[in-house]
Write the structure tokens for this entry.
Amino acid sequence: MVIYWPETKFIFIYNLFMVSLNSQQRENLVESIANNFRNKFINKSGLISRNYPPDERSIIDNFDDIVPFLDYFGYSDIIFSQIDILTPNSYEEEMSVNGVLFSYKIDEYVGGLNHIFRKYKNKKAEILLKDAIKKTFKYFIEGDQFSDIYDLNLKQRSKYYSTWSAGFLETILEVESIDKPKEFISDVNKILVAWIKSPFFLRHNLFPFRSSLFALNFSLEEFNSKLNNFCGEVPEKLIDHPNKFKNLLYKNFHLYKFKYGLNRYLRSGHWVQLMKSNTTPVFTMIEMYKITGEEIWYKSVSKWVESALEKLTDKHYNPYEIWIENKKKNPSLTAGFIIIDVICDAYKFLNPNNNWLEQAIKIANKCLSWSWSNNLIPMTPYSEFNHIDNQIDFAISIRKLGEISNNAYLKSHSFKLVEKTLEMHRSDNGFYTHIYQNGNYKNLPKNEIDPKYNGLLLKGLVHLEEKDAEIYNNKYLIDLFKDR
């Protein structure tokens, strides 16, 4: 049975039975995670591996997922050990796949370097940071075209863009604010304006997964989208799917991933993915509004929020990850926490719209209704397994929402969720990415202990350390708790 009491009169009962980690226990957890990054997760090159057991792929294209959190807890020596190994050539060597660079992978490398440079004024970090920004413009950007792919062997960029790449645009807005005001604002402005003036956005007020500014390529994507609508379904129930075979797909991890892959990659790019592809450019537009105060960003973000609430939630406030041709697909906790995050930022920085806030609370409550009896939440209302990062991100989102809306239950529950995650996902070798309701992790993917998500778990521990702070009254916490 799910414990679900939105009314504040029950909060004292909830707190009475809530067992909290004390400061020593939190410190021990942080130390064990840091020691894994110092020893267990290191590959043959001396870099932190993206996978475990370690292999040649490094975590550099996810650098910002570990840098600020290790630094928060005083483990900057681990970060500097990585920076000492990196060279300008690491940009190509560590982030390319078979000689191909992807623009959406760049921002976390730049973000991690920027964090270290801003705080420590480290010369090596500055050299790597400036080199990475210069190369990104050289490889991917020409005028308002921000290509999604660059082939190092052919020395050629694609004619398509992916709005997921907006993470880089938001990051360089932070870089420019240090010592070169307005250096990159015009570049970011050109690209964002091109995206919001594209036919797809003008029709739907949402961003496509992949599209093109070139008329011929845009038309090819439009044509392809008309051919691929046979994939996928519209879920109808929240416990079991009415189709027994599709229900099996959701409950078997490997089949679920295969089905999700079919939906995502056997289509054109003219469909909508909420996480990253849509939320990242919206966060960037919010930053542009904060910097410039220009009405275009106010209007575009407002239109996006209204459209997302219409197209990516249903009448019961279930949040969906995908929208295509008037169909909502894949209800997920990821969709829930990220749309709440956008609404919180839009409410605080752009438009204190109470209707948005009320809908965000209903989305949060709906996701909480999926909870298991141990308070952890599965990846979807259908699935029998969860994801460690979803728990942390959802917890932080409902904390933000609870602070803004003065909802004591949401705020209090956010800490309980993190503590239960730390308890249930832990093992002697690190923290498991997925578990079943009973805590079992067998028959789940090979990469059971993932260095990236072990690093992001530190964000949950920061969440506990900063329990008494108000996030939106603290710029450091606003930046630290971003999910881009």
Notes: The longest helix spans residues 23-40. The chain is about 55% helix and 5% strand. Residues 224 and 268 are 5 Å apart (CA to CA).
